[in-house]
């Protein structure tokens, strides 16, 4: 929330105070949780809006009142997975906001990694989007282009939530990442080794996505990356930078192979194709029935529910639903059922 969750005076936190409070709150929370993590902050950061700490695996059940007392919080906003706490800091003569995020133990390392170094993953993620790769709190994903055009969420195949695998898939140096970044320049130099780098995007403003424009305009580091660092790479400073020569198709194939996700991809594509076919099939069947819109819709919904129940447990569609014979047999079968049973379906409705 950037320190704005409460209607209180929560000014920016000086860096030295931030480090002291992070150490203090981490120690306190370790008495209640087996795992406590704080992501590395952005390089050269001298003030902070709030303090973010991730926790997992409580050592025992505890109450919200116990947590408030432990932290010395005067106000809180309960929430899951993130709760906010307002804590008075005498050195600042003001309140600081502490955000505690409860994570599944198997996900906390990824979430810590994804938040690391401020806008690092905003920058890398913006480059990945050009080739269908996105990164969020759950991991790295690849998008199937023809599905993405109609439903972005349904188009995603999860690839990995392993930090090292993610860094290396983007073509960056894991050892460099582990050493960290003491300056913004170092972090930008690291990002510039991403194999999905597109130097021309800072000039081709119209190709920057809405999300990219928001990042550039609202996030200072992203603005510096787009408006200052990238333009310099088009000159002599960028002579040793390998340009992006990857297509979406090649990245998709590489990702499925590298992370062994071919089955998940084929299932996703198959089910999507089946659903699209069924949508058109039911439209054609509805048009064949001697019914008005309302009664026709009821009959189709009833039959579609039956078909869905039959499909359960038979998710191995893959290329099957792309076969013309499979589609033809499916439509012939359910057209016959609809013609034979529409009266019975309507009578059962009236009887109910």
What does this structure look like?
By secondary structure, this protein is of the alpha+beta class. It contains 14 helices and ten strands. It has three domains: 92 residues, Beta Polymerase, domain 2 (2-Layer Sandwich); 142 residues, no CATH class; 90 residues, no CATH class. It has a five-stranded mixed sheet with strand order 2-4-7-6-5, sandwiched between helices. Strands 8-9-10 form a three-stranded antiparallel sheet. A two-stranded antiparallel sheet has the order 1-3. Strand 5 and strand 6 form a beta hairpin. The chain is extended and about 80 Å long. The model has no long low-confidence stretch (mean pLDDT 89).
Task: Write a brief caption for the model.
By secondary structure, the chain is α+β, with helices and mostly antiparallel strands. 49% of the residues lie in helices and 15% in strands. The longest helix is centred in the last third of the chain and has 28 residues.
């Amino acid at each position: 929330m950037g320190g704005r969750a409460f209607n209180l005076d929560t000014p920016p936190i000086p860096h030295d105070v931030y480090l002291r409070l992070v150490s203090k709150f981490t120690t306190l929370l370790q008495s209640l949780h087996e795992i406590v993590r704080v992501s590395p902050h952005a390089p050269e950061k001298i003030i902070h809006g709030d303090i973010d700490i991730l926790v997992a695996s409580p050592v025992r059940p505890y109450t919200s009142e116990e947590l408030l007392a432990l932290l010395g919080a005067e106000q809180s906003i309960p929430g899951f997975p993130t709760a906010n706490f307002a804590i008075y800091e005498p050195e600042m003569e003001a309140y600081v906001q502490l955000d505690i995020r409860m994570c599944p133990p198997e996900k906390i390392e990824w979430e810590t990694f994804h938040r690391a170094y401020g806008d690092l993953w905003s920058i890398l993620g913006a480059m990945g989007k050009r080739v269908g790769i996105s990164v969020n709190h759950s991991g790295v994903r690849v998008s199937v282009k023809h599905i993405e055009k109609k439903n972005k969420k349904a188009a995603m195949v999860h690839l990995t939530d392993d930090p090292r695998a993610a860094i290396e898939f983007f073509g960056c140096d894991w050892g460099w990442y582990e050493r960290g970044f003491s300056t913004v320049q170092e972090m930008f130099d690291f990002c510039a080794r991403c194999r999905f780098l597109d130097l021309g995007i800072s000039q081709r403003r119209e190709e920057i996505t809405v999300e990219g424009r928001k990042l550039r305009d609202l996030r200072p580091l992203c603005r510096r990356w787009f408006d200052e660092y990238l333009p310099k790479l088009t000159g002599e400073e960028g002579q040793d930078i390998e340009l992006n020569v990857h297509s979406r198709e090649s990245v998709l194939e590489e990702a499925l192979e590298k992370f062994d996700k071919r089955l998940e991809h084929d299932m996703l594509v198959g089910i999507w194709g089946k659903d699209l076919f069924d949508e058109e099939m039911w439209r054609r069947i509805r048009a064949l029935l001697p019914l008005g819109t309302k009664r026709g819709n009821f009959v189709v919904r009833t039959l579609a529910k039956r078909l869905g129940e039959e499909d359960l447990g038979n998710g191995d569609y893959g290329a099957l639903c792309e076969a013309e014979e499979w589609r033809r047999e499916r439509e012939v079968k359910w057209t016959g059922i609809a013609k034979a049973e529409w009266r019975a379906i309507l009578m059962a409705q009236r009887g109910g």
